[in-house]
Amino acid sequence: MTLPADIWTAERIRALGVITDLLTAAKILNIGRTRAYQMARAGTFPVPITTGARKYAVRVVDLLHHLHLATEHPLDHPAVPSVHGTPPDKRGPTS
Questions:
Q1: Second label for 41, Cα 20 to 30 Å away, from 32, 52, 73, 87?
Q2: Max Cα–Cα distance, the chain, nearest Å
Q3: Is the separation of the CB atoms in 33 and 26 below 8 Å?
Q4: What is the C-alpha to C-alpha distance for residues 58 and 8, in angstroms, rounded to an integer?
Q5: Is the torsion defined by CA of 20, 14, 7, 49 positive or negative?
Q6: pTM
Q7: Torsion of CA 16, 22, 49, 34, to 10 degrees
Q8: CA–CA distance from 95 to each of 9, 83, 91, 92 (Å)?
Q9: How confident is the prediction for the chain on average, in pLDDT?
Q10: Can you give the pLDDT of all 95 residues of the chain as single tens digits?
């Protein structure tokens, strides 16, 4: 069974990728187009917005957190250094 186009599940939101446009984010949050642009300009959109070259973008992870659908935030766990970035004397014994 397929869901109607106006139903946004966590899986469907995650499938958007890393970043989505302002209007898609607004649809997910049930905010109209005009109001979304007004809020973006005023800095009152409910999730952080990135701007560039006359375009607004929203991180999908921020949408998921706002909707309480994210399991963890990527910044909660610092990146683990790669073995390739570790100096040879810190890698441990080699055979």
A1: 73
A2: 65
A3: yes
A4: 16
A5: negative
A6: 0.68
A7: -160
A8: 50, 16, 12, 10
A9: 80
A10: 565 667 899 999 999 999 999 999 999 999 999 999 999 999 999 999 998 878 999 999 999 999 998 765 555 544 444 455 544 555 555 55
Query: What is the token pair recorded at 64?
Result: 């998921």
The two tokens of residue 9 are 């599940």
- Please report the sign of the dihedral spanned by the C-alpha atoms of residue 17, residue 19, residue 21, residue 26: positive
- The DSSP annotation for 4-72 comes to PTT---HHHHHTT-SEEEHHHHHHHTT--HHHHHHHHHHT--SS--EEETTEEEEEHHHHHHHTT--S-
